[in-house]
Fold this sequence. Notes:
Layout: H1 4-12, E1 13-14, E2 19-20, H2 23-40, E3 44-47, E4 50-53, H3 62-73, H4 78-83, H5 86-99, E5 103-107, H6 111-114, E6 116-120, H7 123-138, H8 148-159, H9 168-173, H10 175-188, H11 190-197, H12 199-210
Antiparallel strand pairs: 1-2, 3-4, 5-6
Amino acid sequence: MDALPYRMYLLAYDEAARGPYDRTRTGFLVRVAALVDLTLRGHLAEREGEVRVTEPGPVGDPVLDRVLDEVAAAAHGWKHLARRHRTQTLHDVEDQLAAGGRLTVAPGRIPVLSGRHTTVQDPGTVRALRAHVTAVLHATTSAHEVAPEDAALVALAAAGRIGSVLSGPDQRRHHARIDDLTGRLGELAPGLETAVRGLRTTMIAAQGGMGGS
């Protein structure tokens, strides 16, 4: 499964936590990754500040098809779509990874509090993905030479403060590079770039009980 939401989930996976490093933040990250993926495929576009379906589905991927249907139901901006149904998108990603034999999913000890426990069947895939994203961050090539999906993964990992990918010192040391890679999203849609740049604040608000699901 090469779609961006799956890669984003694996990038955020924490073996010690038996799941994403932070479920709330990962819900946002996989949701935005799905929106980026659909835009790259030509299914979404920004028009007068709202996100529109330019090519109806199906895409052929259950997660992307569901998100596309949600966008088609009503016109909204990127920030709204990043917040909307993010928990469902997270569950859908886990379910599809499990259906593909790449993840096992079990209920948490207290489901209402801990949600799910998940186990990646091949931890090497997580390590390889982290190494790839780290290489993109450290590369000396221009941001414009980076594949847009790779630029998106770096931008989202930075916005979500995924420590296993980008430590605090790395965030500060490579601030200009992260900024340039995040700017690649503006080539897809200016509002998408703005939403990703403001994602950290959106996540903090959600964790303070203001975000909905």
